[in-house]
Description:
By secondary structure, the chain is mainly α. It has a single domain (25-206), classed as Four Helix Bundle (Hemerythrin (Met), subunit A), CATH 1.20.120.520. Helices cover 72% and strands 0% of the residues. The chain has helices at 12-18, 26-51, 57-73, 75-94, 99-129, 134-166, 169-179, 197-206. α3 runs parallel beside α4, α3 packs antiparallel against α5 and α4 (75-94) runs antiparallel to α5 (99-129). 32% of the residues are buried.
Amino acid sequence: MVARVRLRHPCRHFQNNYQETAIKHTSLQIIRDEHASLAAMLRSMTLMVDRGPGDNPQQFFDVLRAMLFYIDEFPERLHHPKESDLLFPRIVRAAPAVMDAVERLERDHMSGEKAVRELQHLLLAWELLGEPRRPAFVDQCKRYVEFYLEHMRLEESVILPEAEKMLTDADWKELDAAFEKNCDPLAGKYPPDPEYARLFTRIVMRAPAPIGLGDA
């Protein structure tokens, strides 16, 4: 059984922008929940990298591999495509002023999968070839985390508020139906897909807060 953890919202600047506003649309809440769980993952990963392997390198690399696999498997293949295919076209039609922001976000989406794969390769090099390969992973990991947090901040501060103001009830009906199928277990609200049960157990039980309960 996978441990279910109610995550604290790790992106305080996201939360403060909206804590006084009731969220009317399911898809908006799901997007923000998924951003929160991903930000928690990124912050936990940063903590782990800063601490280093310590006296348990096997667990250290095992958990980092699981985290990067999750990022590649869930946000890159499920969350981002729905934003690109469903949300962004609607918001550009309704509010053309956000076109520049959407184009930047789309460029981020296009480069995201490649960036994760590069991190996975650099991590494997560190694990197999030792300390000489550590700086390359650490540097790239920090840049990736900063890139991703800024990406989500732009969505939260520009795109989602504009969508809330400009999209129609018909738009929201389609968006809600699509995003309700995501069910990210790390958001703390949904049971895991059995296919990913071991992955989520590994992350939650071994990774440090804010994403997990461990001290890897």
